[in-house]
Amino acid sequence: MTDRYAVIGNPISHSKSPLIHKLFAEQTGQDMSYEAIEAPLDGFAATIQRLRDEGYKGCNVTVPFKFEAYALCDQLAPRARDAKAVNTLAFRDGKILGTNTDGAGLLADLDKNLEFKLMWKDALLLGAGGAAAGVVWPLFNAGLGLDIANRNIEKAQLLADEFKGAGTVYARRYEELTGKSYDLVINATSSGLSDELPPLPDGLFKPGALAYDMMYGRETPFMAYARKQGAAIVSDGLGMLVEQAADAFFLWRNVRPDTKPVLALLRK
Ligand code: NDP
Questions:
Q1: Where are the domains of the chain?
Q2: Range 103-238 has CATH code 3.40.50.800
């Protein structure tokens, strides 16, 4: 019987995940289906229960349900525990297992696809929502010096406080960024959705710096700003999307797909 998977979000019609997983399944010869399901904003838990009742094997979770998914799990992988947010669920032996593949996806894209080495570099993470929470520990563990900037400074401070005892991560107001410069600036805000740019100063990029917008599908104001400011490499988040999907696929199917041809196809 064909194993069934899905991605749950609201809205979800824009999602590229069904296409990505279809391509992975074809490439690796896996008998599985993968669809996009929109859950009502107050109906995430009920949607998960329905999928379990219908025999689905697992699902991905996206905006705005990653924190609810975290709360719903019977068992959490360490990286989901760190992030306090879950983007991948597996339904096994009557239990909900949760993990978070966003951080691994970002690191794989930076390392493998963009060939950007992270160790000893200085990074600025913009945003303190679900996407930022998913990547902050993996970035820290990769050996980066890390600042987090957010409009709501309390949220950035909460993220930074998690590193007390492990190292120093600074929460910054946007006004405090003047005069600072970084090797890597990651836009994990949703500002691109409304064609806005966070209030960033001039001179933010060191020579050779990489500017990364987690959004994908179009040139965002952040990407345009980074080009104008002289960032050496400017990337959208499509590679992260494909790499985090590959990690989820591996957890479900125990087969690691080759992401390069899938990413190339999506870029066309
Ligand atoms: P959340 O809603 O959880 O968080 C939104 C964040 O963006 C908050 O920090 C918010 O700041 C900030 N923000 C929103 N608008 C602006 C603005 N105009 N200026 C400055 N800051 C702003 O969203 P997520 O964290 O889940 O998602 C963020 C982005 O990352 C989305 O575009 C999403 O598509 C993308 N993403 C991409 C992935 C990929 O695989 N490529 C994976 C996951 C996410 P405040 O707290 O001050 O309101």
A1: 3-101+240-258, 103-238
A2: no
Note whether 3-101+240-258 and 103-238 share their fold.
yes
Q: Assign a CATH topology to domain 3-101+240-258.
A: Rossmann fold (3.40.50)
Closest Cα to residue 246, out of 24, 59, 4, 5?
Answer: 24
Rounded to two decimals, what is the model's pTM? 0.96
Q: Is the CB of 188 under 6 A from ligand 1?
A: yes
Which ligand 1 atom minimizes the distance to the CA of 194? 18
Query: Which protein residue's CA is at the shortest distance from atom 4 of ligand 1?
Result: 129
Selection from 241, 223, 105, 162 nearest residue 148 by Cα: 162
Q: Tens digits of per-residue pLDDT, 223-249? A: 999 999 999 999 999 999 999 999 999
Q: What is the pLDDT of residues 125-144, one digit of tens each?
A: 999 998 999 999 999 999 99
* Ligand 1 contacts CB of residue 155 (under 6 A): yes
The Cα 77–Cα 250 span in angstroms is 14
Percent of the chain, pLDDT > 90? 95
Please list the active-site residues. Answer: 66
Q: Which residues contact 78 (CB under 8 A, 6 or more apart)?
A: none
Atom from ligand 1 closest to the CA of residue 155: 46
